[in-house]
Design goal:
- By secondary structure, the protein is α+β, with helices and mostly antiparallel strands.
- It has a domain at 11-234: 2-Layer Sandwich (Ribosomal Protein S5, domain 2).
- The protein has 20 helices and 16 strands.
- A four-stranded mixed beta sheet has the order 1-2-4-3. A three-stranded parallel beta sheet has the order 5-8-11, with helices on both faces.
- Strand 3 (56-61), helix 1 and strand 4 form a beta-alpha-beta unit.
Length: 630
């Protein structure tokens, strides 16, 4: 028989694939439903790893209400990455990963078994048995964090039924809300009413069942309980160190120069538009004028604070408002012909951009331009619908948004900090979209369409981009869908302090990878830097921790993409050092799973091409301005 063998650092670590097969079984808590009643049940997860070609298979019996395939794929990849640190396993594609979930009751399924899948897969790959008596619930996110789930109390009840001694749950879920029925009497009559009470999960489990409850922030925290023999550091012990990342963001010359140019253009654009208004129009547009003036002033303040991407975002909103006023005035003069001409002009611009944005290799600037084109296409479709319904003002509002979105596409298309092979992004798209779709289905089934609709919108935009062969844009929209879904689940019932700690951890890990990309790959990860700054803006300027968390996750997802796919272009941007306090380098040997991120990253790349980008954008804006003035 042919025996396949991978070379390892030592003979002891070599694995004979033909003879290798191992499986691990873990009890996992789940939620089942009978009528309107939900209750906890124990299912049994078995993971078997065999020589193969990178396939991930899963069976559930009875069938789960929500597919677990996406969770299984993420679990397999994360588990292989971790297990490979302890044993030479070859490549991920050397194995097939077989998951089986069995239960005595139909379960709701979803992503809450993701953490358990990862832990069991690590055990199967390393041929080690998990410590008995431990139960974990939580989804596994692609960055290795443990995501929040529902049904915590029901799952603890289920854990008690098999005499579990330890229950691990996602960080920030030590307190959950529960609806209870309260009985009261008035005279001879008995009444019932429902009320919401907050339950201390740790106290509930210990006093009722003698079960100890522990929070886990990442998969490393959970592994410490299941596999005590593995030499690893947890992450939850380093929260104070991670919080230093909250005072930190990057500055780069592309965003700086673009924001200053855009500020001057927007102010002049507003002045020109105001000069075309008579006294009655100024009264009619007063709210829009004040909105634009406010946004311009806020953008000016953000530029002074070196928050250039955030300033560009506000200036985009200001320009959209100004363009809306301008287009309304033109419509009143020219009538429907103006709308038809503008729509035709925008469609021609979209066709032109499509012709240059479908490439075998994409720059990150082209990916950013792709999503702006998709946004414009989406707005044009909405504008057409409003126009057919006779809703002229909303039609013009959508046209104005599309017009400004296309302007920003021309800005981004000139930037190049890294190259991405389009085929590689396309091949990874399915996994991202599958996981986002899984989370959407889970949120929809547990919390209803109201909370799931935003995730669905990004999924639909992602599919629209893919159909146009905008694979970078499709990938980015899938990331946005996942980021919004993960953030929604992670903030349920969590305190602001715990949420800030989660943000801090993800930001810290993002900073570490950004510095690696700068030092080792000579890549300027602008999309990651932009989202990183935007998360800082929402946390510190808007006090919106939910959106801060969303953009922190997007920054982490994109730096991972840069590390996985990106290659240096040696192009057009200077990255300056840190604007605010830099986290101090931790000299302790116990620093968790990586190195310090506090080192200087003042990498300077050739900047000549940025002049070309700015000049091209300036010419574009000047052309638009002259057309408007006439």
């Amino acid at each position: 028989a042919l025996i396949l063998m991978f070379l390892a650092p030592t003979a002891l670590n070599a694995i004979c694939l033909e003879d290798f097969t191992h499986e691990v079984t873990l009890p996992i808590p789940a939620v089942a439903q009978s009528g309107k009643e939900s209750f906890g049940v124990i299912s049994y997860l078995t993971v078997r790893v065999v020589p193969g070609s990178g396939h991930v298979y899963i069976e559930t019996w009875p069938l789960a209400e929500v597919d677990m395939q996406a969770s299984a794929r993420i679990a397999a990849h994360i588990a292989f990455e971790i297990a490979s640190k302890y044993k030479d396993l070859g490549s991920f594609d050397s194995w097939d990963y077989l998951y089986s979930v069995r239960s005595n009751s139909p379960i709701m399924g979803g992503p809450s078994a993701g953490a358990a899948m990862t832990i069991a897969t690590i055990g199967a790959l390393l041929e080690i048995k998990p410590k008995p008596g431990i139960i974990i619930t939580g989804m596994i996110n692609p960055d290795g964090t443990i995501g929040a789930v529902g049904g915590i109390l029901e799952k603890i009840d289920a854990a008690a039924s098999i005499n579990a001694t330890t229950f691990l749950l996602p960080y920030g879920q030590l307190y959950v809300n529960k609806t209870v029925m309260e009985k009261y009497t008035i005279g001879p009559f008995i009444y019932y009413k429902t009320k919401t009470v907050t339950v201390n999960v740790k106290k509930y489990a210990l006093e009722k069942y003698g079960i100890k409850v522990h929070e886990v922030l990442t998969i490393y925290d959970a592994l410490k309980y299941f596999y005590e023999s593995l030499p690893l550091n947890d992450t939850i012990s380093y929260i104070d160190m991670y919080r230093s990342a909250l005072t930190f963001h990057y500055v780069n010359s592309f965003l700086k120069n673009s924001s200053i140019l855009a500020l001057n253009y927007t102010q002049e654009y507003l002045n020109t538009t105001l000069s075309k208004m008579d006294a009655l129009s100024r009264i009619f547009y007063r709210d829009d004028v004040e909105k634009a003036q406010y946004l311009i002033q806020k953008a000016r303040e953000l530029i002074n604070d070196k928050l250039y991407y955030s300033a560009l975002s506000l200036l985009f909103q200001a320009n959209t408002t100004i363009t809306y006023m301008y287009n309304i005035m033109e419509y009143r003069t020219q009538g429907d012909r103006y709308i038809e001409d503008l729509t035709r002009e925008l469609n021609n611009t979209i066709d032109f951009l499509k012709s240059i944005l479908v490439r075998s290799n994409l720059t990150d600037g082209m990916i950013a331009a792709q999503i702006r084109v998709i946004d414009a296409v989406d707005s044009l479709e909405k504008a057409g619908k409003y126009y057919r319904e006779g809703d002229i003002y909303n039609a013009i509002r959508e046209l104005s948004y599309a017009e400004e979105r296309l302007k920003t596409a021309f800005l981004w298309i000139n930037f190049s900090g890294s190259l991405f092979p389009s085929d590689s992004i396309r091949d990874s798209f399915d996994d991202e979209l599958s996981f986002a779709t899984l989370l959407y289905a889970y949120i929809y089934s547990m919390y209803g369409s109201h909370y799931a609709d935003q995730v669905l919108r990004y999924i639909e935009l992602s599919e629209k981009a893919y159909a146009m062969k905008f694979y970078g844009g499709a990938y980015l929209y899938a990331l946005e869908a996942r980021a919004h879904a993960e953030s929604f689940l992670d903030i349920l019932g969590i305190s602001s302090s715990d949420l800030l700690n989660k943000i801090a951890y993800v930001r810290y890990e993002t900073m570490r990878e950004i510095n690696i990309s700068l030092s080792n790959k000579s890549i300027i990860p602008l999309l990651a830097l932009a989202y990183f700054e935007y998360s800082y803006y929402f946390e510190n300027k808007e006090n919106d921790l939910e959106l801060a968390f969303v953009f922190t996750k997007l920054a982490k997802s994109w730096i991972t993409a840069y590390m996985k796919f990106g290659t240096a272009t040696y192009g057009n941007i200077t990255l300056n050092n840190i604007t605010l306090h830099t986290p101090k380098e931790n000299s302790s040997s116990n620093e968790p799973n990586g190195g310090s991120v506090g080192k200087s990253s003042g990498e300077r790349l050739e900047t000549r091409a940025i002049i070309v980008a700015i000049v091209l954008f300036a010419i574009f804006l000047l052309t638009v301005y002259l057309m408007r003035r006439d």
